[in-house]
């Protein structure tokens, strides 16, 4: 039988937090997802230098070290935390539009020709959440309706989380949609989602716009 992939949670700096604050943000993925993410960080020499400590910790993880920690928002925290996948569902939407509210409460109007998103429910270290990985076709935004621009290379979130172009724009690591207090809330959300999907791409958009 094919071995099921193992999932982990990684906390990184939240680039959508206001400039005078410091917060962390959770990202989720398989070992291979994180391998691809860290590989991208090493390609650009400036990023490789900036995130050298983070990259070296992943290299130690790959070598078999388990008790690894790092600092985020002035806190020493575990590096990659094992997570338990509870449910996984896929949603495909055509000609989808929504409104994203940034850190300062201001709107961005978003639209795409198509989005295919994978929604994953996790239990991790006594916490429960629903997360999303998405691939958008012709993803666009506007500060004012009618002034549409393609989401492109000017990204203000955490480096290398997002990738692609107007024909296929995606996040390498899953990002949070909802948090839950109990397993019962997780199960209820999953059952409702099956009947009426309600994807939330807010954290994806936060890695486009950062704190702007």
For the termini, the CA-CA separation is: 47 Å
What structural category characterises the helix and strand content?
alpha+beta
How would you spell out the order of helices and strands?
A: EEHHHEEEEEEEEEEHH
Uncertain parts: none
Q: What's the pLDDT, averaged over the residues?
A: 92
How many strand segments?
A: 12
Radius of gyration: 17 Å
- Give the CA-based shape: globular
Q: Which band does the percent of strand residues land in?
A: 35-45%
Multimeric state = single chain
Strand order of the largest sheet: 1-2-12-7-6-5
Protein architecture, described:
The protein is α+β, with helices and mostly antiparallel strands and 212 residues long. The protein has 5 helices and 12 strands.
List key phrases describing it.
212 residues; alpha+beta; six-stranded antiparallel β-barrel; two-stranded antiparallel ribbon; 12 strands; 24% helix
